[in-house]
Write a structure and sequence with these properties.
Layout: H1 14-21, H2 25-36, H3 51-69, H4 86-91, H5 119-124, H6 138-143, H7 146-156, H8 185-191, H9 206-217, H10 233-243, H11 248-261, E1 265-267, E2 281-286, E3 312-317, E4 329-331, H12 334-345, H13 359-362, H14 365-368, H15 374-383, H16 385-394, E5 410-415, H17 418-421, H18 424-432, H19 449-474, E6 498-502, E7 507-511, E8 521-524, H20 526-536, H21 546-568, H22 573-583, H23 589-596, H24 615-626, H25 632-637, H26 646-656, H27 661-664, E9 669-675, E10 684-691, E11 713-718, E12 727-732, H28 736-743, H29 749-759, H30 768-782
Parallel strand pairs: 1-4, 5-8, 9-12
Antiparallel strand pairs: 2-3, 5-6, 6-7, 9-10, 10-11
Organism: Photobacterium halotolerans
GO molecular function: isomerase activity
Protein name: 9-hexadecenoic acid cis-trans isomerase
Length: 798
């Protein structure tokens, strides 16, 4: 039997008139209480097998995901309204911002499924309902719901008939959010009549709007994503047995893995082949052992004191819609377990005692895990290097934290060979430097940056002087650094070569050396990659105060320069100095002293015989050749693999060659859909990335002063790259020559807008939502494991 939500009545009601004339939220709340009773959370989460729940899953949830979650997910969801789960919708909104870089003390955490476990608990934490929580009737449910009122506001006041919105629109990430409660909706409607939902986007089609309105009128019945598929239960049980072994070696290994997996989306491909329905899971610390209900230990950081004698590691379903900006899939397979056992469990070393959880110890992985072999830890991190570095970018915050303005817009990353890191001499050196490698997370989430920065600066200087002395001693007898230092992925692992793209305050990491040779590159060794993880992932608190966030950014300066210095060590000494001068133009004197002294005091000549006047280009070419066998993803992103004719591919290459101030006019990320002339070929998706050049990236503030627009360029890749599109193009292959010709003649904002008039699907376009659905569908079909819903909070209004 088909179950239908009741049709919404359009009959005027007294309540609506009362709210229109009432400009006072308190008075409105009093009237609502008098007329409809005191608010109280309602029972909306139904068993999945019920007919109303099935209607929600089949008709409502897809609309909520594709129309609402594209803006309302993760910590950067406007008003903290996370609509990516039934529980998040029922939780509602909060006027406090998670991203607040000026707060003096750390904020209280509001993590879904962690910091509260019922709507009643969220109300006590200051969250306001967006659904009716008073007497339940069709009219009351509609008129007392912020969601339905926002939808009605949009239907009654659609966007103006203009391509680029003018007037009182703010699309900046730090815009002043209103976050009205139901008591404040009348005033909001009068003050911001065009600000209905979806905000600043074209309204929903009538039939979609009606489905949502009928659902709200019926009391918004939902169901939760909490079931574990039967097929994966044996795998979960096997992994929980491994992670909860009783001996100290298993316990310390599990603690190490948890602190690297806690932001991951785990899945079991051997039990459940890749499909649109792949189930993802997360790992948590629990007070209870496997076989018992999970009792989550909620701490700010994964290494904080759990407050119990024994921690258990448990695997739970991800209960929220998968969105690209937080999605870090990580496969748990039999092969992975065997490899972990071979590196961490089977070697003949002893864990004599488990480390404690004092901040000074737990925040420093070189101390906390000193009993685990350095080689095992490093092997784990580089075996999964893309996933490891993806954590720096996507987790635990989902929106690029303050530390992102400390990296260049595109650079390559390679790794020191693990056989070198696994030597007893290297392990002994790290042991002597543990105190110099302490990290800001030991100061917790409320700290003052300046005094601590001076302390960490001195420690980092001592470490680098010791490291350079160690290297100078190791290579004093005619030995020299060569590309033999660089890991080749053992000939099979495509994690050996990575490219990182920065898109202002978000970023992307992909496998392969993508694009033309970059300005800079990093060579990462064990201590460096581990410290970056504990700085930006395990130790970073998005709820921390300004000091915590500023200190994180300032410390990341040290780590970036260390990675760059490792790369420069392979160049001739004179080239090292000239490259540094180019990378740090107009840097302040204290930084120059640091660069010329502490960080680059490795004086041995390179063991590489250079043959040209451009050693850096030669070195990058050598790395490309060395890693060619495992750089399969370079091919994945190559334009020559786009399924268009040769002339069209030639046009794409011409588009990618735009540079300088012309490139500056393009946005951070442009997602392009091309309809091939051959109707048997599916639409092709590409990404046009703008790479912004800088004199240096060591300035804390006013980044614009360090910009070099004349050196900007574009990278065009096959496929989608990034989570936050700035613009959409939808074009026919036959039109490519004219479009590229016009793009090459862009010299002003007016020229750019004229191009968009021909190619763009702007936020005002009546076809915006059908295009969005098609784009996400193609992305999901082409990358069923990697893909998630894109985020539209950065769509430009141009």
């Amino acid at each position: 039997m088909t179950v239908h939500f009741p049709k919404l009545t359009r009959r005027p009601v007294l309540l609506f008139l009362v709210l229109i004339v009432s400009g006072c939220a308190t008075y409105a709340g009093f009237n609502l209480d008098q007329m409809y009773g005191k608010p109280a959370p309602q029972t909306r989460i139904l068993p999945a097998e019920t007919s109303l729940a099935q209607r929600y899953l089949n008709e409502v949830k897809p609309l909520v995901e594709n129309r609402c979650v594209v803006c309302h997910a993760c910590y950067d969801a406007p008003c903290q309204l996370k609509m990516s789960s039934a529980e998040g919708i029922d939780r509602g909104s909060n006027k406090e911002k998670v991203y607040q870089g000026t707060r003096l003390v750390a904020a209280n955490t509001t993590r879904m499924f962690v910091d509260a476990h019922s709507t009643e608990e969220w109300r006590k934490k200051g969250f306001s309902p967006v659904l009716n929580e008073r007497v339940q009737s069709s009219e009351a449910n509609t008129q007392l719901s912020v969601i339905s009122r926002m939808l009605m506001l949009k239907q009654n006041h659609p966007l103006p008939d203009e391509k680029v919105l003018s007037g009182n629109w703010d699309f900046s990430l730090d815009r002043n959010e209103q976050c009205p409660t139901i008591e404040e909706m009348s005033a909001y409607e009068q003050s911001y009549p065009l600000w209905g939902m979806p905000y600043g986007l074209t309204q929903l089609p009538d039939h979609e709007n009606q489905i949502l309105m009928d659902w709200v009128a019926a009391g918004a019945p939902m169901t939760s994503q909490s079931e574990i598929p039967q097929a994966v239960k044996p795998q979960i049980a096997e992994w929980e047995r491994f992670l909860n072994g009783d001996d100290f070696k298993h316990q310390l290994t599990a603690r190490y893995l948890f602190e690297h997996w806690f932001v991951s989306h785990l899945y079991f491909p051997e039990a459940e082949p890749a499909s649109d329905q792949t189930a993802f899971f997360r790992i948590v610390r629990s007070r209870t052992a496997p076989g018992k209900p999970v009792d989550i230990i909620a701490t700010r950081r994964p290494f904080d004191d759990p407050g119990v004698q024994r921690v258990y590691y448990r695997i739970l379903p991800v209960r929220e819609t998968i969105v690209d900006k937080t999605h870090m899939p990580f496969a748990l397979t039999g092969e992975r377990m065997a490899r972990l056992k071979a590196h961490f469990i089977e070697p003949g070393y002893t864990v004599s005692a488990l480390p404690g959880y004092t901040p000074e110890l737990a925040a420093n992985p070189l101390l906390a895990f000193e009993q685990l072999p350095v080689g095992a830890r490093y092997r784990y991190m580089i075996d999964n290097a893309q996933h490891t570095i993806m954590g720096f970018i996507k987790g635990p915050v989902c929106r690029g934290q303050l530390a992102l303005n400390v990296i260049n817009d595109r650079f390559w990353v390679v790794f020191v060979d693990p056989d070198i890191a696994d030597s007893p001499q290297v392990a002994a050196f790290y042991a002597t430097q543990a105190d110099n490698l302490r990290l800001p997370a030991e100061k917790n989430s409320t700290t003052l940056p300046l005094h601590n920065w001076v302390t960490y600066s001195k420690q980092q200087g001592r470490f680098l002087r010791a490291k350079n002395a160690y290297l100078n001693d190791a290579f004093k007898n005619g030995q020299h650094l060569t590309t033999d230092l660089i890991w080749d992925g053992d000939g099979t692992n495509d994690n050996a070569a990575l490219t990182i793209f920065r898109h202002f305050d978000s970023a992307t990491v992909v496998k392969g050396l993508v694009g033309e040779q970059p300005k800079t590159a990093w060579v990462l060794d064990y201590s460096l990659i581990e410290r970056i993880h504990y700085l930006l992932v395990a130790g970073f608190d998005v709820y921390g105060n300004f000091g915590h966030q500023l200190l994180t950014r300032m410390y990341m300066d040290f780590l970036r320069m260390e990675g760059e210095s490792n790369f420069l060590s392979l160049l001739p000494p004179a080239t090292r100095r000239s490259e540094l001068a180019n990378w740090y133009q107009d840097a302040n004197q204290s930084l120059l002293h640091y660069l010329e002294g502490d960080i680059n005091d490795f004086s041995q000549p390179s063991g590489i015989e250079y043959k040209t006047s451009n050693p850096k280009a030669e070195l990058l070419g050598m790395l490309q050749s060395k890693l060619k066998g495992v750089d399969q993803n370079h091919t994945r992103y190559a334009l020559d693999n786009v399924q268009l004719n040769k002339e069209s591919i030639s046009q794409l290459h011409a588009l990618a060659r735009i540079q300088g101030r012309q490139a500056t006019l393009f946005p951070e990320l442009t997602f392009i859909m091309i309809e091939p002339t051959d109707t048997n070929v599916p639409p092709q998706l590409l990404t046009l990335v703008r790479n912004s050049a800088h004199k240096n990236i060591s300035s804390l503030f006013d980044e614009e002063k360090n910009r070099l627009p004349s050196n900007d360029n574009l990278t065009l890749v096959n496929g989608l790259l990034g989570s936050y599109p700035s613009a959409f193009w939808h074009i026919r292959e036959a039109d490519l020559p004219d479009i590229v010709s016009q793009a090459k003649r862009i010299y002003s904002e007016e020229d750019y807008r004229a191009l968009l008039d021909h190619v763009a699907v702007r936020r005002t376009n009546p076809d915006f939502w059908p295009f969005s659905d098609k784009l996400n569908q193609i992305y999901r079909q082409s990358r069923p494991i990697e893909s998630g819903l894109l985020d539209y909070n950065r769509l430009e209004n141009r």
